[in-house]
Amino acid sequence: MSEEKESSCASCSSSGGAGGACGGAEVAESLRDVLITSTLEKIRYKIFVMSGKGGVGKSSVAVNMACALSMRGFRVGILDVDIHGPSVPRMLGLTGTLEVEQGPVIKPKKFSDTLFVVSMQSLLTDPDQAVLWRGPMKTSAIRQFISDVDWGELDFLVIDSPPGTGDEHMTVLKTIPDALCLVVTTPQEVSLADVRKAVNFLQYAQANILGVVENMSGLICPHCHKEIELFKKGGGRLLAEKYGLSFLGAVPLDPVTVLAGDIGKPVVMLDEDTPVKRAFLALADAVAEAAQSGLEAYVSMRP
């Protein structure tokens, strides 16, 4: 601790009142910890979708997987912790800001009776406004997204993250120690190189890695409906095998996914039966099964 910091804390503690500013901040954080614990106890599985690489379709995977889980009868929440580039509300066609009830309690945006969303995008009055925040503010916001939001009882909380292994990821892992991490990659080496760093980060943090999913695994031709290995295939499976991780599925690249995202309707909710829709439904089933066994393993290892 620096001399300036010590001096500041000393003046706070001697300023009377309820222990000064530092003491008040500590009490506030302690209370938030209690609220976070209370909230997380009502959520059975927390799925943290991440990747060390941008552009691999994390949000698409998170949104379609969450929708597929809700379609299977689960009660699901989506927490978008991509502070600077939130896209989940747009992909779900959600507009408007979050509602605040009595006190600091925030209601998540309701997509359906079984799917609820919280995102930085829903806090901005201007959707094109840039968020100019550094680490401490992002950490505080993520903790508030858990403590101050009335999530209720959920079967799954799907957490969508930005690229990399920065403040947002470390905050989620520290705040939600039983989070099950789903690593998203695309098949080509330029993606795998960064994803390997993400896996290394998770191993160093002693996080619970649920498994790997390969997105954009081949291209489904919109004319002949045959598969083209545009970005190769199999890189995600090889990555999983190298690190001894579960391979949870491969999702092909399909132009319908882009159109679905633009109109705010996830591809798994389209009427048309497509290979990408079947792949996301299969991924949701694999994640639900792996989450159950993964959580049981986590609980058994706790002291």
Count of individual helical segments:
10
Rg measurement, Å: 20 Å
Strand content: 15-25%
The low-confidence runs, each spanning 5 or more residues with pLDDT under 50, are 1-18
Mean pLDDT comes to 87
Spatial separation of the terminal alpha carbons: 32 Å
What is the H-and-E element order? HHEHEHEEEEHEHEHEEHEHH
What is the strand tally? 11
Morphology call: globular
Class from helix and strand fractions: alpha/beta
Biggest beta sheet attributes: 9 strands, mixed
Q: Helical proportion? A: 40-55%
Question: Your description of this structure?
Answer:
With 303 residues, the protein is an alpha/beta fold. Helix content is 44%, strand content 20%. The protein has ten helices and eleven strands. Strands 1, 2, 5, 6, 7, 8, 9, 10 and 11 form a nine-stranded mixed sheet that branches. A two-stranded antiparallel sheet has the order 3-4. Strand 3 and strand 4 (106-107) form a beta hairpin. The model is unreliable at 1-18 (pLDDT under 50).
